[in-house]
Amino acid sequence: MTMAIRNLLEEHFDTAFAAPDGIARLRELILTLAMQGKLAEQVPGDPRAAELLETIEVEKQRLVKTGKIRKPKPLPPIKPEEVPYQLSNGWEWVRLGEIGIINPRNDAEDSAKAGFVPMPMIPEGYSEKHQFEERPWNEIKKGYTHFADGDVGMAKITPCFENAKSCVFSGLPNGIGAGTTELHIFRNSFNSVVPRFLLYYLKNPHYIGSSLFRVGNGMKV
Q: Mind listing the UniProt keywords for this protein, alphabetically (predicted)?
């Protein structure tokens, strides 16, 4: 944590603690600073985001040629007016569809066990644990949203979106599941982002309350 940020938090801690909604606002501030990379010193030797994006593009093209994934549709560039704040040196704004797969599909045997997750089993707030019901894959593979261990899911309708109903899926039978169609799913196919970092970004009240939310491949981080 930089000295300036430390002084800022110390200066406002007592005031925030005493205010009726102070703790919630302080939590929001800390989370926002964390998402902006301002709670820790940046390591000069870390690879720049541009290098990672080039590696992802090469792997994406390889998977397209081998038939593992479909050729992705080109996404519009991020406009200056869409950028909410200045990034740390070496970071870049991207759309999630550039660094992973949005709303993927699973391929599994009909008899395989899988996890069924309706919306009530998706947690609100900053809890990360979800529940599931074990079912045969053939019972849930049609008519539901697909996901797998490591995928990030986020509610796309009100009021669940405002309540930050989202999670990183884990512990699913055979690593796969399906459930509520009221979710957007991000699959970290190229190991481009730490799923928990993305989860906290999506749960950030600043993100939820902004007009920057875009559905499908247009989701930004």
A: DNA-binding, Restriction system
In a domain, 83, yes or no: yes
| Distance, CA of 31 to CA of 219 (rounded, Å) | 19
Total structural domains within the chain: 2
Distance CA 105, CA 158 (A): 24
Which residue segment(s) compose the domain that 191 sits in? 46-221
Which residue is associated with the tokens 């390889």?
62
Q: Are residues 162 and 194 in the same domain?
A: yes
What pTM, to 2 d.p., does this model score?
0.79
**Residue 167 exposed, middle or buried by CB count within 10 Å (0-12, 13-18, 19+):** buried
Tell me: do 31 and 90 sit in the same domain.
Answer: no
Contact 165, 124 (CB under 8 A): yes
Are 30 and 53 in a shared domain? no
Give per-residue pLDDT as tens, 87-109.
777 888 889 899 999 999 999 99
Q: Locate 192 and state its tokens.
A: 């481009």
